Amino acid sequence: MTSVLVLAGGLSHEREVSVRSGRRLAEALRSKGFQVKIADLDRHLLGTVDALQPDLVWPTLHGSPGENGSLRDVLQHLGLAFVGPRGPSSRMAWDKPVAKALVARAGVATPAHVAVAHSTFRQIGAGAVLERLARDLGLPLAVKPARGGSALGFHVARTATELGAALVDAYAYDDLALVEHVVEGTEVSVTVIEQADGELRALPPVEICPVDGVFDYDHMYNAGETEYFTPARLSPEATEASLQAALTAHRVLDHRHLSRTDLIVDADGTPWFLECSVSPGLTETSQVPLAIAGAGLQAADVYADLVERVIAEHRTARDDA
């Protein structure tokens, strides 16, 4: 029986979401006949790996423990097959300003933005920084930690005063904040999966409609706080442009197996790149399962196919080494 070790939990602000993602994934894989164990990211992990000798590791760790690349470096050093990008690729996507620069260079639009370090914010004067950001980028502005997920520390600032408060909150999660102009339009996410033949498939865009207009942590993970439409209510041209933007981001950021790209589609149908998740959520309110269902697929089948594909890919690479 194929054994899978699901990693969930970890010491981050997103621990609860990670646990829920891991539990849902484990249930799906068990329904397909896999032997699945869930392990936390703690001092017992390497002992668990040695005892279980899993055929595959699937990290569902959100936040820095699972997305900053360090854990994936360890998994690769141990010679383990695992789902998702390798360490260096994870670091590119995890750092939002870096990801934006790379995706923009590939021709995908991204909102005007600037990364502001906490030390810079203090040293050159908060008032001057706030005034220049509001003037040069144009209000409203979206503020978020430059490295983080699940919309923790995310705010939309419509005044300079709100901008200051938003930056202070973002700095509680990271010492670098990303401030970007808010592009008005339809917020969507596009899931990309690698199929058995190695080809990439972009699933139907999921349209995100929070009840009060701000897709923050509470709206992301609390049932009833956000309405989703799959496929998104876009024109055929805007839909195709969104799929191509997500495929470009997946390739440019060197993702593997599974990714989720977040976009804003403006009134002209142009998709604007926001970010690309290293370890997308798999909870009951997450967009990846919604996209899978919107494509007429079963999540358990998609996850099982990925497991088999990654194991086969790993064995081929090992035999060729």
Automatic annotation (TrEMBL):
PANTHER family: D-ALANINE--D-ALANINE LIGASE, D-ALANINE--D-ALANINE LIGASE B. Binds 2 magnesium or manganese ions per subunit. The active site is at residues 14, 150, 286. Residues 100-308 form the ATP-grasp domain. Keywords: ATP-binding, Cell wall biogenesis/degradation, Ligase, Magnesium, Manganese, Metal-binding, Nucleotide-binding. Gene3D superfamilies: 3.40.50.20, ATP-grasp fold, A domain, ATP-grasp fold, B domain. Mg(2+) 1 binds at residues 262, 275. GO terms for biological process: cell wall organization. InterPro entries: ATP-grasp (IPR011761), ATP_grasp_subdomain_1 (IPR013815), D_ala_D_ala (IPR005905), Dala_Dala_lig_C (IPR011095), PreATP-grasp_dom_sf (IPR016185). The keyword Lyase does not apply. Belongs to the D-alanine--D-alanine ligase family. This is ATP-grasp domain-containing protein. One of its GO terms (cellular component) is cytoplasm. Transmembrane segments: none annotated. Pfam families: Dala_Dala_lig_C (PF07478). GO terms for molecular function: ATP binding; D-alanine-D-alanine ligase activity; metal ion binding.
